[in-house]
């Protein structure tokens, strides 16, 4: 399925790449990967997206006392840190598939936080019993996965949690997407964060693709789109 969904236009279908982000490659210097994760953390701090994403997540569990939250693909752990700061009794299991990212989070304040558990988890095959969490959250990571793996995350996230919240890059209409790419491309060969940003943009899923993936996974999905904000989707078991 194209990233623009089954009904994607011809131009939209061209806006795709099979190249992997530095973050997903095993042949890349760990320092390059670290620079991408640090840049994500920095932009989240400067533009307030860690707080914004934490507020979106906490709204989903506003009615749940002492909620258990699973963060998948946490990268730097800043979202989990905000969740723990904003909610006085939530427990957060902070995870990523990348062992070095998990080691870095475990070596920092999250590793010592009494309401945090830090561990390696592959979002496509989650090592946890059914319904262990009130919420699973996967931020800025869903586009990393090809359709079959993305559908597996929808199935697994809604198996282990009552709700799976996906926050990701929006896939704009194709002409706007071309403009977005044109502003980024000149810097992509020089700045690893921009390199990964271009690939992320080309691999981002449209609302129609998210609906098709949810259908394939056999889960319900509610999409909350805004013109300039992130793509937000909440998946639940049928
Ligand atoms: C762009 S980073 C996002 C980091 C952080 N969530 C944020 O909002 O800035 C994508 C993260 O997804 C992780 N990831 C990729 N595939 C994954 C998988 N199958 N399971 C769990 N995490 C995965 C990567 O290791 C990386 O840390």
From TrEMBL:
Pfam families: Methyltransf_25. GO terms for molecular function: methyltransferase activity. Gene3D superfamilies: Vaccinia Virus protein VP39. Residues 69-160 form the Methyltransferase domain. One of its GO terms (biological process) is methylation. InterPro entries: Methyltransf_25, SAM-dependent_MTases_sf. Keywords: Methyltransferase, Transferase. The keyword Ligase does not apply. This is Methyltransferase type 11.
């Amino acid at each position: 399925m194209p990233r623009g969904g089954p009904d994607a236009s011809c131009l939209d279908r061209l806006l795709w790449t099979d190249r992997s982000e530095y973050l997903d490659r095993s042949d890349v210097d760990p320092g390059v990967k670290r620079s991408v994760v640090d840049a994500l953390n920095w932009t989240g701090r400067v533009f307030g997206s860690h707080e914004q994403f934490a507020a979106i997540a906490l709204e989903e569990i506003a009615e749940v006392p002492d909620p258990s939250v699973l963060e998948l693909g946490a990268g730097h752990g800043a979202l989990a840190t905000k969740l723990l700061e904003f909610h006085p009794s939530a427990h957060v299991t902070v995870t990523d598939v990348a062992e070095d990212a998990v080691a870095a989070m475990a070596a920092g304040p999250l590793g010592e936080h009494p309401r945090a558990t830090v561990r390696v988890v592959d979002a496509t095959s989650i090592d946890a019993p059914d319904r262990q969490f009130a919420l699973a959250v996967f931020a800025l990571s869903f586009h990393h996965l090809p359709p079959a793996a993305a559908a597996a995350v929808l199935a697994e996230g809604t198996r282990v949690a009552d709700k799976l919240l996906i926050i990701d890059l929006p896939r704009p209409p194709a002409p706007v997407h071309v403009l977005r790419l044109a502003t980024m491309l000149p810097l992509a060969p020089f700045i690893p964060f921009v390199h990964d940003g271009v690939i992320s943009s080309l691999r981002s899923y449209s609302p129609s693709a998210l609906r098709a993936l949810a259908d394939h996974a056999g889960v319900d999905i509610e999409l909350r789109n805004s013109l300039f904000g992130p793509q937000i989707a909440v998946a639940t078991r049928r």
